[in-house]
Write a structure and sequence with these properties.
The protein is 13% helix and 39% strand. With 232 residues, the chain is mainly beta. It has one domain (8-229): Lipid/polyisoprenoid-binding, YceI-like (Lipocalin, Beta Barrel), CATH 2.40.128. The protein has an 8-stranded antiparallel barrel.
Length: 232
Amino acid sequence: MLISLLPVLSREAQGIQAPSDSVVYRVDPSSRLVVKTGKAGLFGFAGHSHVIRARTVKGKLVYRPGAATSSLRLEVPTDSLEVLTPPDTAEIRKVTQAMRTEVLHVDRHPAMRFAADSIRASTGKVAIQLALTMEGTTQTVPVTADVRIGADTLRAGGTFTAKQTDFGIKPFSGGPGGTVKVADRVTFCFDLVAVRNLAGTSGGPGPASDARTVPGCVDNSNARADTARRPM
């Protein structure tokens, strides 16, 4: 998410003056943002683990050359969150309903937001303080991103965790006799692409690949299911 490595660095390294105007990089539709729970988590239901993807991630990075810091703004509509696992349509419907009505209250809080105002250009791993807003509450979480540069394209990947109670979210408890307990901490995994605004460009690198393969949030439910079905 946290895209802070900029092509202008190569020009500066060659002694070429960076432009005085800010440069804007737009988040591309190929970007992936995933939330993964354990057997009970922020979006957990019925004691299963789940991988939840954001179908929509909007935002931009504004790079300011020189000593000024760059800024990041991302927004995920809460009604764009889609449950991917386990591979059972009835279970997915239950999880989605619980997530939207009992956890995220999408009618009152239509978006998650991610912001950073002190990003400085660097190489390799980039550590920032990310302001995360859920349920109308904002908390700062530390994030480290692995950043790569392409021609007019930036890519950043990594993971971070958050506790739902820090955002005023009550851990879910339900199921038979209240036996399903919601864990407080969940993992966010991101593989984001941002493309520099250039006249005449046709867009980014294309649709996102499977959200279940984002490093840090890889889904292993199919492997577990195959093992469970294997005859003794």
